[in-house]
Amino acid sequence: MDKENSRFHQPTTASRPWNTNTNTNNKHHPQKQHYNLDKPSSLRGRTEGFSEDDEMAQRARQGKQWCLNDFEIGKPLGRGKFGAVYLAREKQSKYIVAIKVLHKSQLLKAGVEHQLRREIEIQSHLRHCNILRMYGYFYDSKRIYLILEYSPGGELYKRLTQKGHFSERTSAKYISDLATALDFCHNKHVIHRDIKPENLLVGAHGEIKIADFGWSVHAPTSRRNTLCGTLDYLPPEMVEGRDHDKFVDALGTRTR
Fold it and tell me: What residue spans define the domains of the chain?
C-alpha cells in the first residue's frame, strides 16, 4: 500500500468508530426534512473569497445526499464532548474532508439538539474563505455525521501552545483573517458567540478559518440575552447579565 493510501481504510464493522447496525433506509437515504432546516433568506447571497470550483461544493449545491459508504475513513483528528472528528476521503471525487461524528444520545442528554440544528443551518450557508465550509450532513439511528472542510493546519490553540507566542506579522495576519470573517458573519446577522483559539483552524495556506458554530445565532434584531459560550472567554455583557450583540465576538480577537 502506498504512503497516501495508508492513511485511509475501507470502513468495516471493526474499524468504524460507530455502530453499523442501523436502519438501512436512514443510512443510505438521509431524510434532511427531518431537521426542518430552512435557509434563512439573509444568509443567502454571493460567496466572498471562497472557491466553488471543487467537486464537493458542486455536489453540495446539487443536493447530493451522502451516506457513510460514500467515504473512506482515516485517522482521528480530534475529540470533543459529543463525539470525534475523522479524516475522510469521498470515494468518487477523492476529495479530502473531515467527518464530525456526534452521538445522538449525548446531544439529547445535554439538551443541545437545537444548537446542532442551528449550527448546521448557519454554517452550511456561510461561504467565505475564512469560515470552515460545511458541505452537508447525514445520520443513522445513533449518530449524526457532519461533512466539513479539512484544515490541515489544525487548531490555532495547539499552534499557540507549541510556539508560546506568534510574531507580529503572523498575529496581524491571523487578526485580519478573523476580522474579515466576523465582518462577513455580522453582515449576515450571524453572531458566533464562542470565538476562541480552540475554534479557529489553520488552512492549507496558513489562513484562519472560523469553526464550531454550535453557539452561533442568526439575530436580525441584534440584541440577545442568552448566557453561552466558554467560561474563560465570556464577555463582560454576559457575565453581568446584560443584553449582548455582535460585539461579543470582538472579545475573541483580543483573547490571549
Answer: 52-149, 154-249
194 is catalytic: yes
CATH for 52-149? 3.30.200.20
**104-146, pLDDT tens digit by residue?**
999 999 988 888 999 999 999 999 999 999 999 999 999 999 9
The topology under which CATH files domain 154-249 is Transferase(Phosphotransferase); domain 1 (1.10.510)
Give 16's contacts (C-beta < 8 A, 6+ positions apart).
68, 73
- What CA–CA distance (Å, rounded) separates 173 from 99? 28
Average pLDDT of the chain is 76
Is 212 among the annotated ligand-binding positions?
yes
Residue 188 assigned as binding residue: no
Of the residues 38, 194, 232, 245, which is catalytic?
194
Cα→Cα distances 123→8, 126, 128, 180, 213, Å? 27, 5, 10, 16, 6
163 is an annotated ligand-binding site residue: no
Cα distance between residue 18 and residue 11, in whole Å: 10
Q: For residue 103, what is its C-alpha cell?
A: 452521538
155 annotated binding-site participant: no
Instruction: Give the global pTM.
Output: 0.72
